[in-house]
Design brief:
Length: 97
């Protein structure tokens, strides 16, 4: 994986590596590696990550628990990625786990 230094706002079209500067490694690494065990392809763009979140599929990624899922969802919202429907689908209740 190449480390992409990002200049400017992170958008849905950015490569997923642009989240390296936004997420902790504990959230980012399972997101990339854990998808090998999930029933879907690894995310290639930030928009792919947002879609996994809004479809409540982040919980299917090996190594992502409620705390890291919450970190991903909050980071996406903070950088301005639209997570319409996020409150209903992305489980972030137990962020201490």
């Amino acid at each position: 994986m190449t480390n992409y230094p990002h200049h400017g706002p992170v958008t849905r079209d950015c490569p997923v590596e642009c989240l390296l500067t936004e997420l902790s490694r504990k959230a980012f690494n399972p997101l990339i590696r854990g998808c090998c065990y999930a029933p879907f392809d690894p995310p290639r763009t930030v928009g792919d990550v947002a879609d996994l979140c809004t479809r409540n599929q982040l919980s299917e990624v090996d190594g992502l628990g409620p705390r890291r899922i919450s970190e991903i969802a909050l980071t996406l919202a903070f950088i301005g990625i639209d997570l319409t429907g996020h409150q209903q689908t992305c489980n972030t209740r137990n962020i201490n786990n």
